[in-house]
Specification:
Elements: E1 2-6, H1 9-26, E2 31-34, H2 41-52, E3 62-65, E4 67-69, H3 80-87, E5 99-100, H4 109-122, E6 128-131, E7 153-156, H5 159-165, E8 178-181, H6 184-189, E9 192-197, H7 203-211, E10 229-234
Parallel strand pairs: 1-10, 2-3, 2-6, 3-5, 6-9, 9-10
Antiparallel strand pairs: 4-8, 7-8
Helix pairs in contact: 1-2
Bound molecules: 2-amino-2-deoxy-6-O-phosphono-alpha-D-glucopyranose (GLP).
């Protein structure tokens, strides 16, 4: 595990964008595993700036998003497909047919999950996986559990995740209660994993996940075992850790 401590969120976003563009430069047809949530937005903005300056070419890049709310259509403004188009894909030269998000409209959960795992295997696995961190330690939507789910799975979101995500919806009732998420297996098989954590609200879970015991009740803790795991965290997110 390598830890990059940044002064603040802007610095974190710049450094994450540097690492992603390095990956794209080294392998122009990389498979990037991408994440939603508020944390990666700054990174995506920096990647767009690099593209606009002619410093990065996404034309051969394939992306595989981590998760999608079950039941939301791609054009629903709360869907993760919509988020990715708005925050990244609409602004760069990526071929949208090479960008994948789990199919939230597939009602058959088993089918949706099997198809997504087959898709990830079909593109040869993930070169670089970008992750955010839930306040309860979830990655993607792999919530605290008694074991680490390996494959893409359909999860019931915990109340803490529903609470954390309701700010994006008009009413709490509108927050979907289930999601499809890539499992821990595909994340652990990625060549590089880059997790971003910013702000004081993440300080307790950063300490627990990356300086504590590895256990499925804190899904992100498994990343301590990854061969090439990079944590980029700002001073606030590290404020309760031994690196404070
Ligand atoms: C959601 C996403 C996660 C994300 C998490 C943290 O639950 N499914 O992939 O990491 O939120 O979000 P934020 O970055 O807004 O704190």
């Amino acid at each position: 595990m390598r830890i990059i401590k940044t002064k603040d969120y802007n610095d974190l976003s710049l450094k994450a964008a540097e690492i992603i563009s390095g990956q794209v430069m080294l392998k122009n047809n990389s498979v990037l595993g991408l994440a939603t949530g508020s944390t990666p937005i700054g990174t995506y903005k920096e990647l767009i700036k690099k593209y606009e300056k002619g410093l990065i070419d996404f034309s051969e890049i394939i992306t595989v998003n981590l998760d999608e709310y079950r039941g939301l259509a791609p054009d629903n403004d709360q869907s993760y497909r919509y988020f990715m188009n708005k925050n990244l894909f609409d602004h760069i030269n990526i071929d949208k047919s090479n960008t994948y998000v789990p199919n939230g409209l597939e009602a058959n959960a088993e089918k949706a999950c099997m198809e997504y795992d087959a898709l990830i295997a079909g593109v040869g696995g993930i070169d670089l996986q970008l992750l955010g961190l839930g306040v309860n330690g979830h990655i993607g939507f792999n919530e605290p559990a008694d074991s680490f789910p390996l494959n893409t799975n359909c999860v019931k979101l915990t109340q803490s995740t529903i609470d954390a995500n309701k700010r994006f919806f008009e009413k709490e009732e509108d927050v979907p209660k289930e999601a499809y998420t890539v499992g821990i297996g595909a994340i652990m098989q990625a060549n590089t994993v880059l997790l971003l954590a910013s702000g004081k609200s993440k300080a307790p879970i950063v300490k627990e996940a990356f300086f504590g015991e590895i256990k499925p009740q804190v899904p992100a803790s498994i990343l301590q075992m990854h061969k090439n795991f990079i944590l980029i965290a700002d001073e606030d997110a590290l404020s309760q850790s031994p690196l404070a």
